[in-house]
Amino acid sequence: MKIEKANLSDVEELSSLYYQLTKKYPEHNKMKPIFDLISKDKNYYLLVALNQENKAVGTAMGVICYDLIDLCAPFMLIENVVVSESYRGQGIGKMLMLELEAIAYSNKCALIILVSGNARKEAHTFYENLGYPMVKGFKKKLTYDE
């Protein structure tokens, strides 16, 4: 198993992984242009875990955000952590998270923030075992009239 930055050729596999996370497929016509923006932004780290056939079987994204409080140190936001159901329990999620932590350290981040849905108890245990204590947070989904 190897961890590396995602390539455009990984987009189809990313779509399948995101489906396993959200039970909704991303809008395919938007994925490639957004992937292009992400891949050109030095503050985005979209990682994939590749199996022996070079297929993406896990992914996680870290975003370096700047901050103006305290020491003015950046922080990392982690999103979309998912490992293919058939590959879970093999340490792939941990490998992805540790790689993002290494990136956060190399960017002198003060902390890492991630959000996990209330019902995802297994994910909560996973994050707690990696040293992420549960804290209360809030999020608001924005809706748009079309």
Automatic annotation (TrEMBL):
InterPro entries: Acyl_CoA_acyltransferase, GNAT_dom, GNPNAT1-like
Record-level Gene Ontology MF annotations: glucosamine 6-phosphate N-acetyltransferase activity
Limits of the N-acetyltransferase domain: 1-146
Gene3D superfamilies xrefs: 3.40.630.30
Keyword Transferase annotated: yes
Keywords attached to this entry: Transferase
One Pfam family cited in the UniProt record for this chain: Acetyltransf_1
Keyword Cell inner membrane part of the UniProt annotation: no
Record-given protein name: Acetyltransferase (GNAT) family protein
Organism name: Desulfovibrio litoralis DSM 11393
